[in-house]
Design goal:
single chain; alpha/beta; Enolase-like, domain 1; TIM Barrel; seven-stranded parallel sheet; four-stranded antiparallel sheet; 13 helices
Length: 371
């Protein structure tokens, strides 16, 4: 595969309903899409999952645009690689910026799968053609609104409910949810909103039979998470702290977590996601696919990744209709009544790109070709 051109564009996509975490409230996504074309004319699509501001991670929309434009595109355009898995090595001189790198790397995986005439999930070595789905529910205006939303999502068939928490919206809310829905698979996500001083709060939440508490402490911490895990029964799941397979290995050996959330952008693409999955599987630590309010392109890549053998817990890959009035892929992602998504059979990411829809949403675009 030799990369002939990279097209970078920003689209603006309004959410059907706001999504609130401890970082703040999101009503519209600024999404960077990358279209890579090889010298044979095969195109592949990737998505940068960076947020609108540098809150979930140091990366954000503007930093990703800049680093792709100034560094990553020049490093990759005109270069040839045997496999998509080798593209990351071309970008290695740039430290960090994993979400920006993943946008290019995942697009190249799409190309390789299309050229091979096979679905991306099979190229990645997926072990199953159907994945289990849960939903992530943001902080709501009232507890009653949260309970109503949970009831509707359970009615739609989702197998697991994740709710966001923050100081002042935590144990009391979890208690109400558990009282209303005593038998559901329930987890909470703190997005680093707490410190080790809050250990008594998490010991209290041991009473509610949660599947896990996701990233309760600092985004770059493992040591305090290990100390907290020693004090609590509920498994800790690490998200922001895991940026590579090596991070996963160290966290598991330290006892900092018993579950790992894998996000393609956070780890830098499919190649590193495979490494995280392998290491966790070998150490009997379950993983699951986290979400970043992706459009259909990012969602399609998540589906492919979530077919790997180690992804044994329901992930955050839910239906397109939960987020968007109209998708940028065809058909939109749908979830069965039993809370599953069937991996597509078509080559590449398995969905058709709605070029006109993307054009109508585009607010800026640049292309890069070899000199």
């Amino acid at each position: 595969m030799k990369i002939a051109s990279i097209e970078l564009r920003e689209i603006r996509l309004p959410l059907i309903h706001f999504f609130e975490t401890s970082f703040g409230r999101t009503t519209e996504r600024r999404i960077l899409l990358v279209r890579v074309v090889d010298t044979e004319g095969t195109e592949g699509w990737g998505e940068c999952t960076a947020g609108e501001g540098p809150f979930y991670s140091e990366e954000w929309t503007e930093s990703a645009w800049s680093v792709i434009k100034q560094y990553l595109a020049p490093m990759t355009v005109g270069r040839g690689v045997e496999r998509a898995s080798a593209v990351s090595a071309l970008m290695r001189p740039v430290r960090g910026h994993r979400m920006a790198k993943a946008a290019i790397e995942t697009a190249c995986w799409d190309i390789e799968a299309r050229r091979a005439g096979m679905p991306l999930w099979q190229l990645l070595g997926g072990a199953r053609a159907e994945i289990a789905c849960g939903v992530s529910i943001g902080i709501q205006d009232t507890p009653e609104a949260l309970l109503d939303k949970i009831g509707r999502e359970l009615g739609a068939g989702y197998q697991r409910i994740k709710i966001k928490i923050k100081p002042g919206w935590d144990a009391g809310i979890v208690e109400r949810v558990r009282a209303e829905f005593p038998g559901i698979q329930l987890m909470v996500d703190a997005n680093s909103a707490y410190t080790l001083d809050d250990a008594p709060l998490f010991r209290q939440m041991d009473e509610y039979q949660l599947m896990m508490v996701e990233q309760p402490l600092a985004y770059d911490d493992m040591v305090d998470h290990a100390r907290l895990q020693e004090q609590t029964r509920t498994p800790i799941c690490l998200d922001e702290s895991i940026r590579s397979g090596e991070d996963a290995r160290k966290a598991i050996e330290m006892g900092a977590c018993r579950i790992v959330n894998v996000k393609l952008g956070r780890v830098g693409g499919h190649g590193e996601a495979q490494q995280v999955e392998r290491i966790c599987r070998e150490k009997n630590v379950p993983v699951w696919c986290g979400g970043m309010l992706e459009s259909g392109i990012g969602r399609a890549h998540n589906i492919a990744m979530a077919t790997l053998a180690g992804f044994t817990l329901p992930g955050d890959v839910s239906a397109s209709a939960r987020y968007w009035e109209e998708e940028i892929i065809e058909p939109p992602v749908t979830v069965s009544a039993r809370g599953t998504i069937v991996a597509p059979a078509a080559p590449g990411i398995g969905f058709e790109i709605k070029h006109q829809r993307i054009d109508s949403l585009t607010v800026r675009k640049e292309s890069y070709t070899a000199d």
